[in-house]
């Protein structure tokens, strides 16, 4: 079976490169994002199930994309955006400077997770997706799609990058269950090993 990963449509935050990693801050789609989700997504066949993160923009995107069908939609908070802590609502460039200085294994001030821990969480959610009926649509965030694209393109390279190419809005990345499980298992094991090598940073 196959999963189709899609980044949510555009928001006022993402259009201006501001961060929203708190699902309690309701950042919804802007007019461009709503229109993006009303256009049929190229490469997606009929789906039987949909998973979204717990963020408003992901749920709105899924509902608009599936408005002509009765496909059930479920939330898996493991697919959520990173918790940016004190960088919430600020420019991505502020967080990027901090990340480049401190590294992916450190948690931003006020956050419950590092970038590395957040990626592990996301991978665990993707790892569980094949338990749901398929073909399935997974509406999540740019980091999830970017990391998975990177893993497909660099299967033998250690997951040490701090920054990944930006994922386009509402563009499908199709991946079969066997490959998805293999990537998730490999990268989760790698992250766990990296975490054990950094004192004071337990595995997520």
UniProtKB/TrEMBL annotation:
Pfam families: His_Phos_1 (PF00300)
SMART domains: PGAM
Native organism: Sinosporangium album
Matching Gene3D superfamilies: Phosphoglycerate mutase-like
Database matches in CDD domains: HP_PGM_like (cd07067)
Name of the protein in question: Probable phosphoglycerate mutase
């Amino acid at each position: 079976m196959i999963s189709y990963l899609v980044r949510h449509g555009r928001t006022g935050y993402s259009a201006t490169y501001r961060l929203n990693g708190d699902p309690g801050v309701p950042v919804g789609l802007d007019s461009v994002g709503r229109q993006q989700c009303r256009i049929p997504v190229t490469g997606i066949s009929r789906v039987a199930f949909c998973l979204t993160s717990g963020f408003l923009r992901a749920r709105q995107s899924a509902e608009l994309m599936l408005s002509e069908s009765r496909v059930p939609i479920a939330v898996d908070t493991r697919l959520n955006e990173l918790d940016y802590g004190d960088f919430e609502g600020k420019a991505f460039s502020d967080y990027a400077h901090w990340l480049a200085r401190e590294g992916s294994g450190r948690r931003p001030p006020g956050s419950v997770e590092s970038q590395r821990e957040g990626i592990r969480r996301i991978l665990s959610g993707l790892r569980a997706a094949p338990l749901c009926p398929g073909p399935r649509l997974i509406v999540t965030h740019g980091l999830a799609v970017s990391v998975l694209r990177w893993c497909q393109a660099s299967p033998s390279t250690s997951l040490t990058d701090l920054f990944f190419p930006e994922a386009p809005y509402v563009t499908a990345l199709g991946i079969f269950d066997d490959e998805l499980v293999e990537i998730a298992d490999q990268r989760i094991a790698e992250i766990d090993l990296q975490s054990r090598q950094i004192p004071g940073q337990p595995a997520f």
